[in-house]
Write a sequence for this structure.
């Protein structure tokens, strides 16, 4: 072990501290210790070198089948990359801009769990001179700050999509929709019985029931949000009824569409297909 203190040219050698009680919690003192590897962790680094392959994995789990040693070199290049080429987004947990849902207990009290949903186009490049692509995202880092004395639990983080495609807005006299400058006027989202305590499904409509596991799936609707839509303009979303994999709606005779409009300029459109009768 060779330690340098910032601002001072002080070297601490393993031999000098191995028997010092003040260091007993910081150095390995077992009888099988190796002076070349005193902490018995296979750690090694040559000052000034760009090879960082031996500075991580200190728990020895790299020898387990199928496991990779602890490392900050996520791409396994073992090189220190100083290029800031990534997307970022910050928001306050008290802000409702990205709050997509909350859950309640059976007695009506809130559980404390909140669902935040951030559109990908709301992320920005950390360095405007760099040009990262969404097609090459491999890892994500979550940073929580300014929390004080509070515990924050994260149930899951995932990328989600929508089978409905947002077409944008267009004049009523035109069939050509555009998404240019349309995000602030028209957007689509989803609302369901699992994540949104304020959502009430259409009467008689429920999620599918799994008898084997005694679980009912969430019931979900499409939300079409309009904000100050100009006069004589329309917003549109599209969904393909024929898919190579998954549900193929061409096998249905009828489709029921439930539409519910709110004074908050939200419209929920619910489709409920009925299986073709033999």
């Amino acid at each position: 072990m060779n330690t340098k203190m910032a601002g001072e040219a002080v070297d601490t050698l393993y031999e000098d501290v191995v028997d010092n009680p003040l260091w007993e919690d910081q150095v390995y003192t077992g009888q099988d210790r190796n002076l070349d590897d005193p902490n018995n962790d296979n750690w090694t680094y040559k000052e000034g070198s760009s090879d960082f392959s031996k500075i991580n994995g200190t728990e020895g789990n790299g020898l387990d089948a199928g496991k990779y040693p602890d490392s900050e070199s996520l791409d396994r290049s073992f090189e220190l990359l100083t290029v800031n080429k990534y997307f970022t987004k910050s928001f306050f947990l008290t802000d409702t801009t990205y709050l997509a849902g909350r859950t309640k207990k059976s007695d009506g009290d809130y559980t404390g769990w909140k669902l935040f949903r951030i559109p990908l186009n709301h992320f920005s490049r950390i360095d405007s001179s760099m040009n990262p692509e969404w097609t090459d995202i491999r890892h994500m880092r979550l940073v929580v700050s300014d929390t004080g004395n509070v515990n924050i639990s994260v149930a899951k983080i995932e990328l989600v999509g929508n089978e409905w495609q947002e077409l944008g807005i267009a004049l009523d006299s035109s069939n050509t929709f555009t998404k240019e400058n349309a995000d602030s006027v028209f957007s689509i989202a989803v609302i369901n019985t699992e994540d949104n305590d304020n959502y009430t499904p259409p009467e008689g409509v429920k999620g599918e029931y799994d008898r084997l596991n005694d679980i009912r799936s969430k019931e979900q609707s499409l939300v079409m949000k309009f904000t100050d839509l100009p006069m004589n303009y329309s917003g549109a979303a599209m969904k393909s009824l024929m898919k190579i994999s998954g549900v193929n709606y061409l096998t249905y005779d009828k489709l029921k569409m439930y539409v519910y409009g709110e004074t908050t300029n939200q419209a929920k459109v619910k489709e409920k297909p009925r299986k073709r009768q033999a």
About this structure: Residues 165-275 form one domain. The radius of gyration is 28 Å. The longest strand covers residues 252-261. Confidence is low (pLDDT under 50) at residues 1-12, 265-278.
